[in-house]
Specification:
InterPro entries: DUF2007, N-reg_PII-like_a/b. By secondary structure, the protein is α+β, with helices and mostly antiparallel strands. Helix content is about 40%, strand content about 25%. It has helices at about 10-25, 55-70, and strands spanning about 5-10, 30, 50-55.
């Protein structure tokens, strides 16, 4: 069983979806590859990615679909 990516995008949307999934008792891994603190002169904003366990996808899918319809 591994992780599957369920979202890639803006940090505000990622945090909102993460909170909704955690309310449904689904553990979420967030990956943010932005290096603004390391190299402040470089303005490259990469999307934030959310991952969940494959076994949680069935439970997470309705939450994800409701979220997508609301944005």
């Amino acid at each position: 069983m591994g992780l599957i990516k369920i979202f890639s995008g803006d940090v505000i949307l990622a945090v909102t979806l993460k909170e909704k999934l955690e309310e449904a008792n689904i553990n979420v891994v967030i990956r943010d590859n932005n290096q603004a603190n390391v190299l402040p002169s470089i303005q490259t904003v990469k999307p934030v990615e959310l991952f969940i366990q494959e076994v949680d996808f069935g439970k997470a899918n309705p939450v994800i679909e409701d979220f997508r319809l609301s944005i």
